[in-house]
UniProtKB/TrEMBL annotation:
InterPro entries: Retrotransposon-Effector_Assoc, RT_dom, RVT-Znf. Residues 501-582 form the Reverse transcriptase zinc-binding domain. It comes from the Eukaryota. The gene is VvCHDh000004_1216. Residues 114-228 form the Reverse transcriptase domain. This is Putative ribonuclease H protein.
C-alpha cells in the first residue's frame, strides 16, 4: 500500500488537511499559500509536478503526510490490541481502564502481583545512542506510526514469554467462562507489564528488555521506570481523594503564573474554560471526582474570576450556578465540574455499545458478563476494590435514555422493549397489544417473516376483537417504514450531530438551564469592549455594587445617590432613572 503511485486526489487531500500556519520553508511561503493557490496540471510524472512551483520546505511534509494517511488506515491490523496510541478507534484511557480492572481482579481474588512501568528513551546520552545517516526529525508525521511498529517488537517478545511460561500476566475470568489474559499494555513508548511477584519472573522480564534494547537500538529509561506491588490497600477512600491533589496543585500553579490583575474579565473566562476546566479532564474521563475536590477546584475558579482568595476579600457578585449557565440563559458558559465528570463517564456507556472487538470491552465482558445481547455488562456486585466500571455504570440510566437502535439484522434488538421505532418503545405505545403478545422478549428478527421476507409476522395469544383491529392497523402502519437488512444492529445518539455522542451536546442535555429570558444579543455585542459587556451583564442581573447592595452585605453606609442627591442608589436608579444620568 505504501509503494502505490501517488494520485492527484490523494496529494491534494493531504495538503488541504495540513496546518497552513506552520513556519515557512526556504521559499518563504507557508503551506496556506499552496492550499489557496493549488493548481493541477497535466503530464504529471513525479510528486514535484503536482504544482507549478516547487514547495521546497513543504515538499517533504507533503510526502510524509500522504504516507502517514496511508499507514494509519492499516496500522490497526498490524499491531496487537495491547497498543493504544496512534491507532484509529483506540484511546489512552482504554489502557487506564484495563489496568484498573486488572488490579481490581487481583485484589478481589486475593492474589499478589507486580506492575512494572517502563518508558523508552531515544538517544538517551548526549553523544547519541546510535549513529544514523538518515532518520526522521521530531514531530514528523510518520514518526508516531513507525515508533508504534518498533514497539511492537517488545510486545511480541512479552507475548512469547507469556506463552512459554517465563512470565505470567493476569487471567480475568468470570466463573468457568471465557478468560482473557492481560500481560502488558502500551501507549507509544510507555509500557505496563503485569506479572506475579516472583523473582524469576522479574529476572526473565529484565532479559526481555535487554534483548529489546539490543534489537531496536532503544533504551529503557530507568529514571521513569518503577515497580508497583499489588495487594491489600488501606484507607482507600482517603487515597481516592488525595489522588486528585496533583490536579489541584497544577491548577494552583497555573493561577500563580497568571497575572490576574492584568487580565480582563473576558481573558479570565477564557483561561478558566481552556485551562482550568481542561486540566482534570483525563482523570474525570475515568474516575468519579469526589465532591470535596470539585468544590475546591470551583472555588479556585470563582476566586480567579472575581478576585480574592485566602488573603483578600472580593465580592462574588453573581451566583456560581448562574455563571455556569449558557450565555443564552444569562450565564458565562463555564462548565460545572461535577456535571462534566458525569458526561465524560457516560461516554464509556456509548463506546461500550458501539465498539465491537476492542480489548477493553472484552475485558469487561469476561469480568462482569453481558446482558441485552452484549449492549451492556451485568451490574457490578461485591466489594468495590479499585475497579472503575461500577462508577461508570451509574451513568447508564441517563445515557440509554438518549440512545436508540438502528435496525440491521434485528437479532440483537428486542421488538417490544427496545427503542428502535419512533420516540417511544412499542410496549408503551401499544401497551394493550404488548399484553397480548406471545413472546414479549422476541427480537425483531423473530418477528420478521423469514420465509418470504415480505413483511412482519406478529404473533399474539388470541384472535382480536373488532375494537382491537384499529390498534393492529396502527401498529402495522408504523412498521411499514422498517425492514431488516444484512448489516449488524447498532446504536445511535438521539439528536446529536451525525448521530454520534458529543460531550458538548450531552452536557447541554443534562444541564438544567435557568427559566429566564435573557437579552444575550443586546449584552454580548461584537466590537464592544469586553469590560463594558461584562458590566452590562452584571447590571442586567442587578448585581453591580450600588449602595443598596453594599448595605445588604453589611456595610454601614447612608444610601443616597451621589449624582442627584435625591433618591436612594440602586441599579435601576443609577443607570436609568437618575436625572443627572439622563443628562449625561
Amino acid at each position: 500500500m505504501l509503494e502505490l503511485p501517488f494520485t492527484e486526489a490523494e496529494v491534494q487531500a493531504a495538503l488541504m488537511d495540513m496546518n497552513g500556519d506552520k513556519a515557512p520553508g526556504p521559499d518563504g511561503f507557508t503551506l496556506s499559500f499552496w492550499q489557496s493557490c493549488w493548481d493541477f496540471k497535466g503530464g504529471v510524472e513525479d510528486l514535484g509536478d503536482f504544482r507549478p512551483i516547487s514547495l521546497l520546505g513543504g515538499l517533504y511534509k507533503l510526502l510524509a503526510k500522504v504516507l502517514a494517511n496511508r499507514l494509519k488506515k492499516v496500522i490497526g491490523r498490524v499491531v496487537f490490541p495491547d497498543q493504544n496510541a496512534f491507532v484509529m478507534g483506540r484511546q489512552i484511557l482504554d489502557a487506564s481502564l484495563i489496568a484498573n480492572e486488572v488490579i481490581d481482579a487481583w485484589n478481589k481474588k486475593g492474589e499478589k502481583g507486580l506492575i512494572s512501568k517502563f518508558s523508552v528513551m531515544v538517544n538517551g546520552v548526549p553523544v547519541g545512542f546510535f549513529s544514523s545517516s538518515k532518520g526522521l526529525h521530531q514531530g514528523d508525521l510518520l514518526s508516531p506510526y513507525l515508533f508504534v511498529m518498533g514497539m511492537e517488537v517488545l510486545s511480541v517478545l512479552i507475548r512469547r514469554a507469556v506463552e512459554e511460561g517465563f512470565i505470567s500476566g493476569c487471567k480475568i475470568q468470570r466463573g468457568k467462562g471465557r478468560a482473557v489474559h492481560i500481560a502488558h499494555l502500551l501507549f507509544a513508548d510507555d509500557t505496563i507489564v503485569f506479572c506475579e511477584g516472583k523473582k524469576e519472573h522479574l529476572t526473565n522480564l529484565s532479559w526481555i528488555l535487554f534483548w529489546f534494547e539490543a534489537a531496536s537500538g532503544l533504551r529503557i529509561n530507568l529514571a521513569k521506570s518503577e515497580i508497583i506491588p499489588i495487594g491489600e490497600v488501606e484507607e482507600v477512600e482517603e487515597m481516592a481523594v488525595s489522588g486528585w491533589d496533583g490536579v489541584e496543585e497544577k491548577v494552583r500553579r497555573r493561577l500563580a503564573l497568571s497575572k490576574r490583575q492584568y487580565i480582563s474579565k473576558d481573558g479570565r473566562i477564557t483561561l478558566i474554560k481552556s485551562t482550568m476546566t481542561s486540566m482534570p479532564v483525563y482523570q474525570m474521563s475515568l474516575f468519579r471526582m469526589p465532591n470535596s475536590v470539585a468544590r475546591r477546584l470551583e472555588k479556585l475558579q470563582r476566586d480567579f474570576l472575581w478576585g480574592g482568595g485566602n488573603l483578600e476579600w472580593k465580592a462574588h457578585l453573581v451566583k456560581w450556578e448562574v455563571v455556569c449557565g449558557d450565555k443564552e440563559k444569562g450565564g458565562l458558559g463555564i462548565r460545572k465540574l461535577t456535571l462534566l465528570n458525569k458526561v465524560l463517564l457516560g461516554k464509556w456507556i456509548w463506546r461500550f455499545a458501539c465498539d465491537k472487538e476492542a480489548l477493553w470491552k472484552q475485558v469487561l465482558l469476561v469480568k462482569y458478563g453481558q446482558e441485552d445481547f452484549g449492549w451492556r455488562t451485568k451490574k457490578v456486585v461485591g466489594a468495590f476494590g479499585v475497579g472503575v466500571w461500577k462508577e461508570i455504570l451509574k451513568e447508564a440510566g441517563w445515557c440509554w435514555e438518549n440512545l436508540a437502535f438502528k435496525v440491521g439484522k434485528g437479532n440483537k434488538i428486542r421488538f417490544w422493549i427496545d427503542l428502535w421505532c419512533g420516540d417511544i418503545v412499542l410496549s408503551q405505545r401499544f401497551s394493550h397489544l404488548f399484553i397480548l403478545a406471545t413472546h414479549r422478549n422476541a427480537t425483531i428478527e423473530e418477528m420478521w417473516d423469514q420465509n418470504f421476507g415480505r413483511g412482519w409476522n406478529l404473533r399474539f395469544i388470541r384472535d382480536f376483537n373488532d375494537w382491537e383491529l384499529d390498534m393492529v392497523g396502527n401498529l402495522l402502519q408504523v412498521l411499514r417504514r422498517h425492514r431488516i437488512t444484512w448489516e449488524e444492529d447498532s446504536v445511535f445518539w438521539k439528536g446529536g450531530g451525525n448521530w454520534q455522542f458529543r460531550v458538548k451536546e450531552a452536557y447541554s442535555r443534562l444541564d438544567r438551564p435557568l427559566e429566564v429570558v435573557f437579552p444575550k444579543n443586546k449584552i454580548w455585542v461584537e466590537r464592544v469592549p469586553t469590560k463594558i459587556m461584562f458590566f452590562a451583564w452584571e447590571a442586567t442581573w442587578g448585581k453591580i455594587l450600588t449602595l443598596d447592595r453594599l448595605q445588604k452585605r453589611g456595610w454601614q453606609l447612608p444610601n443616597r445617590c451621589f449624582l442627584c442627591a435625591c433618591e436612594e442608589e440602586n441599579v435601576n436608579h443609577i443607570l436609568i432613572h437618575c436625572t443627572v444620568v439622563r443628562v449625561l
